[in-house]
Design brief:
371 residues, Immunoglobulin-like, 14 strands, elongated, palmitate
């Protein structure tokens, strides 16, 4: 045990330190009941043993108001204190709540710009995108000491859990959903991070290193990645997304600016409809029966799709309807949320349906006659 380090009880980040304090305070309050009960159990067993003839023997005793007040009053007070402590801690340590301090007695400076990190759980590795610097890494990340960090967390396939014990508590990563975490590292060093939620065969290898460095060290780390890393395009991401185990550290010196939004909306694959676009279509009434034909086969899928009598055995996503120009997306164009044509540019008799699809013009023979 001398070689073990209880990082949860000796963290390097202020958020994790506050969570540690909450754990110790709650444990101390509960021990105020547990310790006396355990001690009294031993005392009564010894005091009123069969061989102790000097102990008081009162077989007709059945009630004591003073004892009742102690038995019920003390636990009730402990529960009230625990409830108040937990309620305050739940709101003050909400992972979605921006930080208001770097450490005890040190508020966040007004000029401080939080470091933004997009964390994506893949099978079975972690991808970290730094949108402010245009870089990305696999199974490694770094952050300056005493600089607030804002994480946006999602997953590509199954649910995982993002956890750096020295930094803050664990937060779930779910496909098609975004969770957030605000944290800060206060001590330089290399800390372990991993997935705290079982996600398949390679789960045990979903580990990464988090480096807490000074500002100069972070700038050098970013510069080294920019000069030596490859570009992370949509095609490269689709290769990276494939299931793999015990993946070594990889770096990318350039990243598609819209890649994270495409991952979040599950539309990295070219031509696939984004969830935001699909929700926009649904908000305008949907595609109706015509939507059944609006499908494309997946170029890659983790497992073969189970049989279906409607769409067949091949996995098929919904095809995208709109795309934004490549010059607006960075490296490659991504599917964009569906938008209606501008009202001022629309003709007097619009040729667009409520969902943005162009209506087919009827042939002269099909038009009704006025005669």
């Amino acid at each position: 045990m001398g070689g073990c380090k209880a990082v949860v009880l000796d963290p390097a980040g202020d958020v994790a330190a506050q969570q540690r304090d909450l754990l110790l305070q709650a444990t101390g309050l509960m021990l105020l009941i547990i310790v006396p009960v355990m001690a009294l159990t031993v005392f009564f067993a010894w005091r009123y043993r069969h061989s102790n003839k000097s102990a008081r023997y009162e077989p007709d005793w059945d009630h004591s108001m003073q004892l009742e007040l102690v038995i019920w009053g003390a636990p009730l007070l402990i529960i009230i204190c625990l409830g108040a402590l937990t309620w305050m801690g739940t709101h003050l340590l909400d992972p979605y709540r921006p930080l208001d301090r770097i450490a005890a007695g040190r508020p966040v400076p007004g000029s401080a710009t939080p470091l933004e990190v997009d964390a994506i759980a893949l099978d079975w590795k972690w991808l970290f995108i730094y949108p402010q610097y245009g870089i990305a890494t696999v199974n490694e990340m770094a952050a300056p000491v005493d600089r607030p960090i804002t994480f946006r967390i999602t997953a590509s396939s199954v649910m995982n859990s993002f956890y750096i014990p020295a930094l803050a508590g664990q937060v779930y990563a779910m496909p098609g959903m975004e969770t957030k975490l605000h944290a800060v590292i206060n001590q330089p060093g290399a800390y372990k991070g991993f997935s705290a939620n079982y996600s398949g065969a390679g789960f045990s290898g979903m580990r990464f290193t988090f480096h807490g460095v000074d500002d100069a060290g972070f700038d050098k780390w970013v510069s080294d990645i920019r000069t030596a890393g490859d570009a992370l395009s949509r095609a490269r991401y689709l290769e990276l997304e494939r299931p793999s185990e015990n993946v070594p550290v990889r770096t990318f010196g350039a990243v598609d600016k819209s890649l994270y939004n495409a991952i979040l909306n599950m539309c990295v694959q070219p031509g696939k409809m984004c969830m935001s676009e699909m929700m926009s279509v649904d908000a305008r009434g949907g595609l109706g029966l015509a939507g059944i034909d609006n499908l494309l086969p997946l170029e890659y899928d983790k497992y073969a799709r189970r049989g279906s009598t409607v769409f067949g055995t091949r996995p098929r996503p919904v095809a995208g309807l709109c795309a934004i120009p490549p010059e607006e997306t960075g490296i490659e164009a991504l599917a964009a949320p569906l938008s209606r044509p501008a009202r001022d540019a629309a003709p007097a008799s619009p040729s667009y349906s409520p969902v943005g699809l162009r209506r087919p013009e009827p042939s002269p023979a099909a038009r009704p006659s006025n005669s």
